[in-house]
């Protein structure tokens, strides 16, 4: 039986004048995923549509079974230690927290909670970060 999962990431998108490596260097964080504009969305199918923008993303490093609040606090810890660097990115590019909740029916677990506290609210006001959540029920 599958356990519910929470995939929480911080994303920097629409990067035009910086490389993924530069963002990695300036933040001190290795991305979990990068997307390169102009490459096929499906590398196994060269005829697939092309990506229309560059993207760099990181996660908390805690895994998808850690609860939302623990993952968010870990991401906030990372961002707050390099707030001025992230503020520059948030001013120049599209930045967001992207959260996907994968909920499996009849697995004995309740739907994961998503609570955005004062610490989160303070940071997103300072850095102008959006929040996107997707719910998948299997």
TrEMBL record:
Source taxon at top rank: Bacteria
InterPro entries referenced in this protein's UniProt entry, alphabetically: DUF4279
Database matches in Pfam families: DUF4279
Protein name: DUF4279 domain-containing protein
Species name: Mucilaginibacter pankratovii
